[in-house]
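Bug #77: duplicate submission created two jobs. Keeping one. Sequence:
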Amino acid sequence: MNRFNSNDNETNQMNIILFRKKELDQPVSIHDNRIRHVRKILNCKPGDKFDIGIINGVKGEAWIEKIQENQVILDYTLEDKIQDQLYPITLLIGHSRPQSIKKILREVTALGVSKIIITGTDTGEKSYFQSSIWKDNKIQKYLIEGAQQAHSTLLPVLKKYDTLKKGLLHLSETPNKFALDNIRGYERLSALNIEYERQIILAVGSERGWSDRERELLQKQAFSLNKLGERILRSETAAVAATTIMLTKLNLM
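Kept job's structure:
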């Protein structure tokens, strides 16, 4: 089965279509989700150009050279160097429901974060790590969808750990560490001063937030506990809102 085919009900908007280099040098199935998009949504006929990119590589243009039986043969040209960049933001996420994780991965990849760390939490369901999204590298599909939406070729680094403590051990050193917390958080994230040209690390809990033990772990690792506002938000909403605030502070939005 092609890893890009999807049974998700959500529409994957492809503002650029991403391939692995070797895929472009051989016929592509006419049933491939990307080819369907080119033919049905972009209405491309043989000779019509559309934007492509190599995953974590350069961009370019492709066109349908010919259609034969159940295959499409593409021709293409590629740029000389990578034009995109990811932003100095690491997002640490407590593992939420698989549907929430899918949304978070799509949206924060589109926003341009450079690294995503997903951890188990005291209040989260342990069974989430056995979800089918973690099998056969299916999780990468949601990063690719986010990059395609943003017309980018670059995917963030994605790591997972079964506990918050393990995830915290793999963070870079930076003074810009912020954990969203509506219980003990006092100062709003939007009111903070940050040190520019330094990595920003944002930590967002799972649906039921952080435990007291995890709050202590975060504070021992020099995280400040902050809130977005007075309302309690879904994990996916909080992750996107917090990332957007930081991108604004970095003058990137």
